[in-house]
Amino acid sequence: MVKDFKRWTTQLAATVLYNGRGAANLLGADMTWKNVCLPGVNCGYCRYAEAGCPWGLTQHTLTGFTLPLGWRVWGLLILCALFLGRMICGWLCPFGWAQELLDKLPMLKLSKNKITYYLSYFKYVVLLLFACDLYFFDLHGLDWRWIIGLLAAAALFIYRPFCRFFCPLGAFYSLFNRIAVFGMQVDSRKCTACQRCVRSCLMDCKRVGDRECIVCGKCRQSCPTEAISLGCKY
């Protein structure tokens, strides 16, 4: 946890920022920015939420609700994706951080394997469904408490199950991972191809910086030759 101090501090700050309306209410301030989205997964309907969730705002747009959104939401997401890729998932997403906290509890863990690798492609199916016109889907009848409860239970045994298998936002950001401005880099002059980086990765990465990389830094910590670094790739 000490090695992840910078990242965890950033995740905590992002969680407070995303849900800062509760503190603002205590101070008597009215801070309602629900028509503005933040790049991570967050429940925009929560009374403490500072701003809206990208997917919630997109659903409102597609189902005809009158929110001044449209391409501004997707413009922001594409801009964030071009700069950070899935680094957003590893550093700025409150829901991802919550799953990491649950993973710290001493339970029997399911290690990544071929099954989890292939399951990681399922989130692209979810992304496709969200990209379709939501007139064809009735999401209002779902009991989200059960879904969140099941995901929380799964997070006790599987590292970031929602991020790896179901998150459409993570699937979207992963499309930009290879070209994102910031990310993990490997110095080929120092790399010995020992594969410790891949073995230490808790996501379903096959190499440093691939589509599943959330820039958690586990690969950098495990590298015996310090060949891996985080920074601007251009």
Automatic annotation (TrEMBL):
Residues 182-201, 204-233 form the 4Fe-4S ferredoxin-type domain. GO terms for cellular component: plasma membrane. Keywords: 4Fe-4S, Electron transport, Iron, Iron-sulfur, Membrane, Metal-binding, Transmembrane, Transmembrane helix, Transport. The chain crosses the membrane at residues 73-97, 118-137, 143-159. GO terms for molecular function: 4 iron, 4 sulfur cluster binding; metal ion binding. The keyword DNA-binding does not apply. InterPro entries: 4Fe4S_Fe-S-bd, 4Fe4S_Fe_S_CS, Electron_Trans/Redox. It holds the Pfam family Fer4. PANTHER family: FERREDOXIN-TYPE PROTEIN NAPH. This is 4Fe-4S binding domain protein. It comes from Phascolarctobacterium faecium. The lineage of its organism: Bacteria, Bacillati, Bacillota, Negativicutes, Acidaminococcales.
